[in-house]
TrEMBL record:
Its cofactor is Mg(2+). InterPro entries: UPP_synth-like, UPP_synth-like_CS, UPP_synth-like_sf. Belongs to the UPP synthase family. GO terms for biological process: polyprenol biosynthetic process. GO terms for molecular function: ditrans,polycis-polyprenyl diphosphate synthase [(2E,6E)-farnesyl diphosphate specific] activity; magnesium ion binding. Mg(2+) binds at D19, E206. Substrate binds at residues 20-24, 32, 36, 64-66, 68, 70, 187, 193-195. Homodimer. Binds 2 magnesium ions per subunit. This is Isoprenyl transferase.
Length: 241
């Protein structure tokens, strides 16, 4: 596969709402889990393409706190898929120098899945290439609520002065505290909403909503989206002179 030249002015941190797996499968007369498996394969391609495109951080929305409302069959199938994916990819992550982190509330997840997540984070902690963050049982409001509880506890314990709390304080308590904010958030499948994803972190992110369903989101489409980002004028509330 040909290697791409890093894009001039491209985003350093890309976050993706991977939507459309179920519809992709149903359009082919297959069960929704068939689409989720196809989507997992697409993740591998996009992860592999990031270093060549100058992307240092990739955050993907794998399972939201709202996804528990889906059928028991689909949820069980997704949890099994996550376990298989992590087991299959763990060594590849190390080989490709990818550091993996998970964000979200782990407490509701199966203990065996939690153990795999911990092991993957530990094994890849020495990796210095792409930073891959997987949002699993994640919701932006839930993340802010959990962060606020931790912040409030520090105030109650005397470790934090309430008068010192400002907009730079809360991010230190978020799941993403060691990550830069995303420059670009992509949502596939034609839906134009953010679905409770990285609410605090994406305050100044650029958004790209595309019609392509996630299993059809190729490296070439990814490259085109990143190229379009490079042509944008990001002012962060300022006015160009």
């Amino acid at each position: 596969m040909a290697r791409n030249t890093p894009l001039t002015g491209g985003p350093r941190h890309v976050a993706i709402i991977m939507d459309g797996n179920g519809r992709w499968a149903q359009a082919r007369g297959r069960p929704r889990l068939f689409g989720h498996h196809a989507g997992a394969r697409r993740v591998r391609e996009i992860v592999s393409s990031c270093p060549d495109l100058g992307v240092d951080y990739l955050t993907i929305f794998a399972f939201s706190t709202e996804n528990w409302k889906r059928t028991q069959t689909e949820v069980a199938g997704l949890m099994a898929l996550f376990r298989r994916y992590i087991l299959k990819e763990m060594q590849e992550f190390v080989k490709e120098n990818v550091r993996v982190r998970f964000i979200g509330d782990r407490q509701r997840l199966d203990k065996s899945l939690q153990a795999l997540m911990d092991e993957t984070e530990q094994m890849t902690s020495v990796c210095t290439g792409l930073n891959l963050t997987i949002a699993l049982n994640y919701g932006g409001r839930d993340e802010v609520a959990r962060a606020t509880r931790r912040l409030a506890q520090d105030v109650a314990d005397g470790r934090l002065d309430p008068a010192a709390v400002d907009q730079e304080t809360l991010p230190k308590y978020l799941d993403t505290c060691v990550l830069p904010d995303p420059d670009l958030v992509i949502r596939t499948s034609g839906e134009a909403r953010i679905s409770n994803f990285l609410l605090w972190q994406s305050a100044y992110s650029e958004y790209e909503f595309i019609d392509t369903l996630w299993p059809d989101f190729t490296r070439e489409i990814f490259t085109d989206v990143l190229r379009g980002y490079g042509a944008r004028d990001r002012r962060f509330g300022a006015v160009n002179g």
